[in-house]
Design brief:
Blueprint (H helix, E strand, L loop, with lengths): L2 H12 L15 E6 L6 E7 L5 E11 L1 E3 L5 E5 L2 E10 L7 E10 L11 E3 L7 E8 L1 H4 L11 E6 L5 E3 L4 E7 L14 E6 L5 E7 L11 E2 L4 E4 L9 E8 L14 E3 L2 E3 L14 E3 L4 H4 L5 H9 L1
Parallel strand pairs: 8-19
Antiparallel strand pairs: 1-2, 2-6, 3-5, 3-7, 4-6, 9-10, 9-20, 10-17, 11-16, 12-13, 12-15, 13-14, 14-17, 17-18
């Protein structure tokens, strides 16, 4: 293979997002109502069978003779399990009343401001030097407008084949894709991965993992520095870890709104940068895992227990 062509191919791979594969384990969020025969009130509830919060928007249309307990359309976050949303009551008992409703459910919590800043550790072993590349969607690089990927950004860590990938922040495993092995260049859009939901409503994805190497289960709470799996490889390409963080941004509520994610640039702690700074693309950093980062999202009781270990 021509070395120059090989380099061009590597750059191309860096810009191919894999978030589209992260939705396969989602389960349907249901919004239903229950009618009280005594009062004529319709009580709306959401049932979320997933492992993280979802944002639901409920549009009520063609309303006749009813009033809502909240401003419509209803938009709110629902945790796993059942959540009461709002109610519709007849404006006058005994008179005709009717309505129709439709809803959407999107993974994540709808932020009203940018998420709070948390520090991340590099997803490699402490003391390991790692070269970092910051990437964007190919459409943005080439000047092709794509609303879904406008804010896409990812960090690519160049590592060695078989290296262990570690959790950069505490969270709950909400998605894992395993058992896929790359066999050709056309497969670069596929990836084994782990997706983790953080307490602040953001999501982190660790992609390009080795088939059959994942060490965590769905619903498992992982701590900073916990092994997630091993680094995989693509034919003819150097091994890398693709890491990205996203969230649902504040938007103007509209009927049947489809919410879009924003990818944020996380701040890291490393030996070769000021703590709490952004990584600079093209530089090499040495990983560190200070106790204050391991415990930054633990309760006082959890910290006390951890320090006794």
């Amino acid at each position: 293979m021509n070395p120059l062509n090989r380099l061009h191919w590597f750059v191309l791979v860096l810009f191919i997002p894999v978030w589209t594969r992260a939705q396969v384990t989602d389960r349907k969020v249901d919004v239903v109502y229950k009618l009280s025969e005594a009062t004529g009130e319709y009580l709306f509830k959401a049932s979320n069978p997933n492992l993280c919060e979802y944002t639901v928007q409920v549009d009520v249309v063609d309303v006749v003779g009813m009033r809502s307990s909240v401003k419509l359309p209803y938009v709110g976050s629902v945790k796993p399990g059942e959540t009461t949303l709002f109610s519709l009551k007849p404006t006058k008992m005994g008179e005709a009343a009717s309505f129709r409703y439709l809803y959407t459910a999107t993974r994540g919590r709808l932020f009203q401001a940018e998420p709070p800043t948390y520090l991340y550790t590099l997803p490699v072993a402490p003391g390991q030097p790692v070269l970092v590349q910051e990437t964007q969607a190919m459409g943005k690089v080439l000047g092709v407008k794509n609303v879904r990927l406008t804010n896409y950004t990812s960090l690519v860590f160049q590592v060695k084949n078989g290296d262990t990938v570690f959790a950069a922040r505490r969270g709950v495993v909400i998605n894992r894709l395993d058992g896929w092995a790359a066999t050709a260049r056309d497969d670069v859009r596929e990836s084994n991965l782990v997706e983790i939901s953080h307490a602040d409503g953001t999501f982190a994805q660790y992609a390009r993992l080795k088939a059959g190497s994942l060490l965590v289960k769905l619903g498992e709470t992982v701590e900073v520095g916990q092994p997630l799996g091993l680094v995989g490889e693509l034919p003819g390409l150097p091994p890398t870890i693709h890491f990205s963080v996203r969230y649902l941004p504040p938007v103007e509520v509209q009927p049947s709104k489809e919410y879009k994610y924003i990818h944020l640039r996380p701040k890291f702690s490393a030996l070769t940068i000021e703590s709490g700074d952004y990584l600079i693309s093209g530089r090499t950093y040495e990983a560190t895992r200070p106790v204050e980062l391991i415990t930054q999202e633990m309760s006082k009781r959890e910290i006390k227990r951890y320090l006794k270990q």
